[in-house]
Design brief:
Elements (H helix, E strand, L loop, with lengths): L2 E4 L3 E7 L2 H6 L7 E3 L2 H9 L5 E5 L1 H11 L4 E4 L6 H12 L3 E2 L11 E7 L5 E6 L13 H5 L3 E5 L7 H12 L3 E4 L3 H6 L1 H10 L3 E5 H7 L5 H11 L2 E5 L5 E5 L2 E5 L13 H14 L4 H15 L8
Parallel strand pairs: 1-5, 1-9, 2-7, 3-8, 5-6, 9-10, 10-11, 11-12
Antiparallel strand pairs: 2-4, 7-8, 12-13, 13-14
Length: about 300
């Protein structure tokens, strides 16, 4: 395999709703809310499902890589239930090798209810389910060793079993990439993420807010200085300012694409990472990797959803 992704296996459940549905259920438009199983089922009970998509941050990146004809796999924990089967089928249909063996669990497959209002805004209610219960037992050493790069997501990291899964994957990998995922994740796990970045990861994806927080930097120049010191490949997306790669002493920047008709920012970072990793495994130079990442993220934000 070129790349093996390990992340939260979350099935996206898309439903169209009127604005009144949000008001009635005390939901704030365009936000994401964590819900328990009972609330998830209650919300879904009165809705018609338009589409189900195998989602999750790293899974979105891996599908993007598969669509570019790379040989990729994914490990993410699901239950042997209806949504778990749909999740597996969704990845297989995208030519992704799904390398998790489903078992009957007490906790259902993780799911994200995506409520689309007439103005195309998306309001999300996420039930993590069994996705966050991944352990080292779910990671097979030979799958990791067979990949040129493994790609992890910060969303999945947590003390206990998920940490053991990360450790096992990193120990046996040839090269390890990780996305910091979210400012909330960085602030919650700063000490551990910093240790990973400094000592265990080879390739790190972050946006500007996340990297400033991780390094406790006052400004972006401090980020550049610290990145040079730790001698890793750190790739940072900066919104309208474009993207930058700091690889040891090499600094390469590209501009953001202009005049985009932005419809939905879902998956922008996921598809940027897919484009950049596609460049690495196909021997692009750093600037070409950044350009490919920017091209994919620009495409995805001009449509609804995280699939090109």
């Amino acid at each position: 395999m070129n790349i093996l992704g390990i992340g939260n296996a979350i099935i996206d459940v898309l439903c169209k709703v009127p604005d009144e549905f949000l008001t009635k259920n005390s939901l704030t438009k365009s936000t994401m809310k964590l819900v328990d199983e009972e609330e998830f089922k209650k919300l879904l009970s009165s809705l018609k499902i338009e589409e189900t998509i195998s989602g999750g941050s790293v899974a979105n990146s891996i599908v993007g890589l598969a669509q570019l004809n790379n040989d990729v796999g994914f490990i993410g924990k699901v239950n042997d239930d209806e949504f778990g089967q749909k999740y597996e089928n969704g990845l297989i249909n995208e030519k992704v090798k799904y390398l998790y063996e489903k078992k009957s669990e007490k906790i259902p497959t993780g799911s994200c209810l995506i409520l689309i209002t007439p103005d195309s805004e998306r309001t999300m209610c996420t039930f993590l389910g069994t996705a966050g219960k991944i352990s080292d037992a779910d990671i097979k050493k030979e799958h990791v060793q067979n990949a040129e790069i493994i790609f992890l997501e910060g969303y999945l990291w947590d003390e206990g079993d998920p940490k053991k899964a990360f450790d096992k994957a990193i120990i046996h990998s040839k090269r390890t990439a990780m996305s910091l995922s979210d400012l909330f994740c960085v602030n919650r796990h700063k000490k551990h993420f910093l240790e990973l970045v400094k000592n265990q990861l080879n390739i790190i994806f972050a946006n500007e807010q996340e990297i400033l927080s991780l390094f406790d930097a006052k400004d972006f120049q401090e980020v550049i200085s610290f990145s040079k010191q730790i001698k890793k490949n750190i790739i940072i997306t900066r919104g309208e300012k474009g993207a930058i790669s700091i690889n040891h002493d090499e600094i390469i920047e590209v501009n953001a694409q202009s005049n985009l008709k932005i419809k939905d920012l879902t998956g922008a970072g996921d598809l940027f990472a897919a484009g950049y990793l596609h460049g690495i495994i196909n021997n692009f130079d750093t600037k070409e990797c950044l350009i490919k990442g920017t091209e994919l993220s620009s495409k995805i934000i001009q449509k609804i959803g995280a699939r090109i």
